[in-house]
Every structure is written in C-alpha cells, then in structure tokens.
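Sync notes, pocket subgroup
Present: LS, DG
LS reminded everyone that the earlier model was apo-only. Rerun requested with iron/sulfur cluster included. Inputs:
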Amino acid sequence: MELRYRWSALTHVFSRGGIHALYNSLKLRPIYVDGDVLALAQAFGGGATFSEVLIGASPTQSGKFQRAFPALCEAKILVDAESTDEDIIDFFRDHYLGHPYVSIAYFILTDACNLACKYCFVENRIPAGHLFRQMDVATVVNGLDFFGRLMRLVPAHFEEEKTIVLYGGEPLINIVALRVLLGEVAVRRSDGRFPQNVRINMVSNATLVTPEVARLLAENRVGVAVSLDGGATATNSARQSKDGTSVFDDACRGFDVLRAEGVDVGVSCTLTEGSLENFDATLEVLLERFQAKTLGFNILLSSDAYPLASGYDERASRAIIKGFEMFRRRNVFEDRMMRKLNAFTKGEVYPFDCGAAGGGQIIIAPDGAVGICHGYLGSRKYFMTTVDDKRFDPARDAVFVEWAQRSPLAMPQCRACPALGICGGGCPLNADHEGGSIWECDRRFCVHALATLEWLIWDLYRQMQDLGSTDDMGA
Ligand code: SF4
Ligand code: SF4
C-alpha cells in the first residue's frame, strides 16, 4: 500500500523573488523550491499519497517534484501522515530538557560598582536602602566548596567543562576576594576537587585595571569581557562615572593594559541608542581600535530606569546581523549570532539561550546567598539557599526544576513559531519583568530570533547558489 504523507505543521515557508524556502522548525534544514514544487508539497495537506498529489500535474511539474520529494521527506517538510506534530515536539522536549545540572557559577565579588551606567540591569534593580557588600574570603571558599559539591552530584558530568564568571557590580573593586578565588581554583584543579577544564571569565568595566591586576588575570588565564558600547560618544552616552570623568578613556586604558599583559580580552557591547545611532562607527571602533576577536552584543533589557525608544528591538536585531556579516569576513567571533548559526548549521535544536534557563548555573551573592540569575540580585527572587547548605541538590529544588524546563520546547505559545529550534527562549528575567512570568516570551528576543532565522535561511541560499547546488529542487 502506498504511504501517506502530510504537510508538517512545523513547516514554514519563506519566500523571496519566486524562490520558497521550506523549513521545519525542529529539523532546521531549509529546502529551496519553486512555486510548482511548493504547490504540490502543500497539496499533501493533512494526508495524501504521492500518486494522489501528482494527478493533474504536468510532466515538468511532476519531474521537478519527484526530484525534490526525497529531500522534502528528509527535511521533514512532509512527514508520515500517521504522526502528529504534538508527539514530535514532545519527543524533542523530552530529549533536550531534563534534570538541572550546574556547570556555571557566577561569583558576585561585590554588588557595588564604581560607575553608574544608566541601563545596568543589576544595579537598577537593587532596592533603595540596600547595603552594598563585598564578598569575604570565607564566602569565596564556601562558594567554591558549594560549586564543587554540585559538580559531583552527577559523576558522569564532573570532567565536563565548568565555568566560573566573576561578576558584579564591578568585580575589580574586590581584589582580595579575586586573589583568593584564583588561588583556590588553582589548588582545587591540582588536587582533583575541580576538573581540569574550569574556565574563569570576568565581566568588567576595566576602569580599575592596573598592570599588577592584569598580570594576575593573565597568570590565571582569566578571560575578560570589557563593557564598551562603541566609541567615546556611544560609550559615554549611557556608561557614566559617578564623578563625571569619561568612562571611555578609563576603559580604553584598562583594555590596553589587559592586552599588553597578555590577557585574553574581548568586548561586551550593549546596543544602546548611542551605539545604534552611528552603527558603522561602532563597528569600526570595535574592529579597528579594539581589534576585538571575541565580542558579544547585548540587547538592552526593558527597564523603567532606561526606557527604550520605539522600534529599538528591530534596530538592534538588524545591527547584530549587519555586525555579524562584517565580523565573519574578518574571522571575528560574535557570540549571540554564533550560537544560532551553530544550531542551524549542525541541525541541532538550541533549547536554552542562557545558563539559568536549563537550570545550569548558580549565582553566589556577596553575602553567600545562592540563586539562579544575577538579574534578581536586588529582589532575591529565585534565591533559594546559601553556600553553607551542604544538602542542596538542584534536581530536587523547585526553582531549578522549573527553570530546567524553561525553553520554547515547553512553551505552548512557541509551538507554531518558525524560530522554535534556534531561539533558546531569550531571557526569562526579561520575560518575567515584562509579562509577569518566566514562562512568557521575551519579546525582544523573538524579534531577534525571527530576524536571525530569516537571515540564516537566505544566507545559506546565497552560499548554495555560489556552489551551484540549488538547481535540482526546482529552485
Ligand atoms: S535570565 Fe536573563 S539575566 Fe538571567 S542569566 Fe538568563 S539571560 Fe541573563
Ligand atoms: S520565544 Fe519567541 S522567537 Fe522564541 S520560539 Fe517562542 S515565539 Fe518564537
């Protein structure tokens, strides 16, 4: 008996200049066809056989469709009529979402900062009257013990890469804790309490960097992402010192010292109105002045303290894509786009866009409180224990278990979205801030994910055309 196929509800059509890209949102492999092949593929509807669909087709249409048919099935544009899309999504959800396992630890060495950047989502959410603190040595040690114990809860994952992120406030305010932490990590690596593969990264405004600090960071192979939003005008427009001196000049000096001392230094560029206004200049500074080889663009979180102009999400998305096109030509790695590009090119679903979603990270506050996301440092929502807790197990903690599932794969409103497989769900904190729940969509990232997907699909088409491999699908 002839098999019956159906048009998958996960299939989406992107059209441009008479070419149609048929794309299953979980298979992540576009098939480029012309209008004849599209019409015949859609004719399968909820279920039909190959012969039924070809009745009435001309020999030319029939020939094109027969050549395209195996690829349409392989790319899950057409699927077994007996299957259901609900079952397919559930299969992916069960495959990619599981128990939380912590492999990233943020150490908030202090919640204080020497700057007063207008958009800072940590400092702006700290309530009035808050007592700013520095992490003391005992908390550093207990925090590392706590992280080490969590690493061992699933022995099979112990040797996998772990990441410590030094964060603030401005982490370089607390040099005492920094020195202790770096020394303790080195000891734990060598005595086996930590795996060999522990990366240490720092996010810093770089204004407090000295040659001595830079040497300490270099010796301990700490990667530093310096917050710079472009050139002087762009950076100074939202990044501000408390005493009115230019942040850009100080940050440049710190950046140069870090590089001179051999630190692996990149740029963390928040896309403010200032950096978007003259984005070509922003790109030029990042590439020419800073010679950035690794960099990440940050899309601003919605904030009462730093309201965004209308159309910001779209402008930021276009800028990230434009930047990526330029960076790619120069072998520069931009993290945000690369994550989606990797998912797309490997055909592997990307379930989470941050370490908290997935339940893979802890935040250790200066006072030793432990939470899941540093954006809640001020409110302490989703902070559930302290570093002194010797029994904490994320797999049994309601917050971690909930966040471990926080992915578009488990969000009903995402099921019909073309970006389902490459999105990762954006930032749950922002979703919570805007919509009142981490289970809402982070709308800024929806704009970014959808624009990125469309770009990826047509970028691949251009590449295939260059290689002459788009002819046999009718495209
Ligand atoms: S929820 Fe948002 S702020 Fe928190 S770790 Fe994830 S991306 Fe960052
Ligand atoms: S979060 Fe937005 S872009 Fe991502 S899958 Fe859901 S609806 Fe699509």
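DG: The radius of gyration is 25 Å.
LS: The chain has a mean pLDDT of 93.
Action: DG to write up.
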